[in-house]
Amino acid sequence: MRQPLILTMGDPTGVGPEIIARAWLEGHFETVNRPLLTAGDPGILHRAACLYDADCVLTESREGPASHMLVGKGRRMAIRALSRLPAGQLVAGRPDAACGRAMLDYITWACDRCLAGEAAAMITGPINKQAILAAGCDAPGHTELLARRCKVDKVVMMLGGSRLKVCLVTTHLAIRDVPAALNRDEILSTIRIADAAFRRFFACSRPRLAVLALNPHAGEGGRFGDEESRIIAPAIDAARRLGISASGPHSADALFHFAVRGDYDAVICMYHDQGLIPLKLLHFEDGVNTTLGLPIIRTSVDHGTAYDLAGTGKADCRSLVEAVKMAARMAPAGL
């Protein structure tokens, strides 16, 4: 049997359980060419499936790593029970320390299975950062937690869909702190990781990477800042000397038109909103968050816990479906 993809359930009080249940019940996973295993809480997943008027039955299982099977509408969901929270007592949008501990357990178990070669990839549901902090983890989020677990110093956040993929040099920083955080080595490292990942996972023999400027009009010859000539251009030159097809610095207000047209495989962005505003304009419902630079494959939904929708059965599952499909495409054929 081919190695499975592992879905982590995310926050038990968010939309994670129900988007997994919805995608499963609607048959969206049936075209995926690998078995799927959900790392989570059987009782909460069963409750989530009931939101869709599905007559589902939860049973214990000894099939491989699965401990339970959720059966309904002629389909079976394999579940690894890593928590047994009181489903009837949990309130949407109110995770406690026990929920935070469960979220961490889902992530670390899935990561360790991937590191051990027992799973082909992991797909993560949305978590609550305050809850994992209450559970004793000071990592700002999934990306940092997985980097620590995998003992990797530098990773790159890539968000993408069929029309546009963006890679971020800096992520969650105040705008005023971005210029000081940029340097030649960080930009070059981002370019190198993106180039290696596109060669390995996306069948690009020589990825075309557009590197953005920081300032309007690429600094306009120094009138609006000198980061382009002082930091960004030297990083691009160094990348080219390594045989990487990197170009720029490009003015961000014009470049995305050409990227969406297909002239580039990915865009290297200097800060969060520079890349995510155009990305979410095009791929708000079906964008995928992928962590590049890890020794494992990790994709994720491109949204949060959506507490305003949790428990209603109205949450959109398209981002999850696309994250699963991307992980399946990235997974090595021989695993």
Describe this structure in words.
The protein is an alpha/beta fold and 335 residues long. The chain has 2 domains: 5-152 and 295-330, Isopropylmalate Dehydrogenase (3-Layer(aba) Sandwich), CATH 3.40.718.10; 156-281, 3-Layer(aba) Sandwich (Isopropylmalate Dehydrogenase), CATH 3.40.718.10. The protein contains 11 helices and 13 strands. Strands 3-4-5-2-1-6-13-12-7-8-11-9-10 form a 13-stranded mixed sheet, sandwiched between helices. A hairpin with a 7-residue loop joins strand 3 and strand 4 (68-72). Helix 1 (16-25) packs across helix 2 (42-50) and helix 7 crosses helix 8 (227-241). The radius of gyration is 21 Å and the shape is elongated.
Derived structural class: alpha/beta
**How many individual β-strands?**
13
Global geometry: elongated
**Which topology of the largest domain does CATH recognise?**
Isopropylmalate Dehydrogenase
CATH architecture designation of the largest domain: 3-Layer(aba) Sandwich
Oligomer: single chain
**N-to-C SSE string, H for helix and E for strand:** EHEHEEEHEHHEEHHEHEHEHEEH
Number of helices: 11
How many domains make up the coordinates? 2
CATH class of the largest domain: Alpha Beta
User: How would you characterize the largest beta sheet?
Assistant: 13 strands, mixed
Provide the β-strand percentage band. Answer: 15-25%
Q: Unreliable stretches, pLDDT < 50, 5 or more residues?
A: none
CATH 4th-level superfamily of the largest domain: Isopropylmalate Dehydrogenase
Subcellular location: Cytoplasm
Catalytic activity: 4-(phosphooxy)-L-threonine + NAD(+) = 3-amino-2-oxopropyl phosphate + CO2 + NADH
Protein name: 4-hydroxythreonine-4-phosphate dehydrogenase
Subunit structure: Homodimer.
